[in-house]
Amino acid sequence: MNHLQRAIPHDPVLVLNPEGRSNVVVVCEHASRFIPPEFENLGLDDLVRQSHIAWDPGALGVAHGLAKCLDAKLIASNVSRLVVDCNRPPSARDAMPERGETMDVPGNMNLTAAQRDKRTSRYYDPFHASLGAAIAAIQDPIVVTVHSFTPIFHGTPRNVEIGILHDDDDRLANAMIQVAPSHTDLKVAINDPYGPKDGVTHTLKEHAIKVGHLNVMLEIGNDLIADAQSQDAMATCLAKWLSNALAILGVSEGVQC
């Protein structure tokens, strides 16, 4: 269902199902581990560039499947978050991080203001412009961002398998927690393993909370979505789960999977 059958072009933004008719807009800020050649791999070896510090493994597959299930538009960043993290303000130090978990990122050390501005204009700005346009085209849009996380961080196992994250607006997150037992036996928690204090709700704040749109950020353990089959299954689960939660809030959202 959510397999990307062709090679993804390396434009700064990936838009899938652009004709989707759902009120939901699915977002995947950390969809890609692609580092443009001009950055010389940021000084990292291939093993590191494939790891979770460079992207959210499995997240794009789940986001694509979710968009198909809901007939929703999907807007994804098509460059590694080590080049620029589209879920951080460009001024934030970790928008172009010098370190990922325990690993230094040599190509991000001592960036000048001009270098940061160039990355922002080339990758961050087009992503947020595309997302803003997709949201503006929908009446009463609902913003759902999809991420994955490593189940072991700094050597410590996480205590959660699916995180339901929110910032000031907790309506959809609370509705999802309310119906969670009907959809999964996995360990689910609010604002875990990350929350607003970690700076992870930038997209929600910029595109939903400021104007009152329903929104939620989903964090999934990447070990649960390591292949296409598990990504499909998770997407189907999340689509039905979201639909049920939205119904509590008086929003009807059809599911096609």
Automatic annotation (TrEMBL):
<dbReference type="InterPro" id="IPR007709">
    <property type="entry name" value="N-FG_amidohydro"/>
</dbReference>
<protein>
    <submittedName>
        <fullName>Putative N-formylglutamate amidohydrolase</fullName>
    </submittedName>
</protein>
<dbReference type="GO" id="GO:0016787">
    <property type="term" value="F:hydrolase activity"/>
</dbReference>
<dbReference type="Pfam" id="PF05013">
    <property type="entry name" value="FGase"/>
</dbReference>
<keyword id="KW-0378">Hydrolase</keyword>
<dbReference type="InterPro" id="IPR011227">
    <property type="entry name" value="UCP029730"/>
</dbReference>
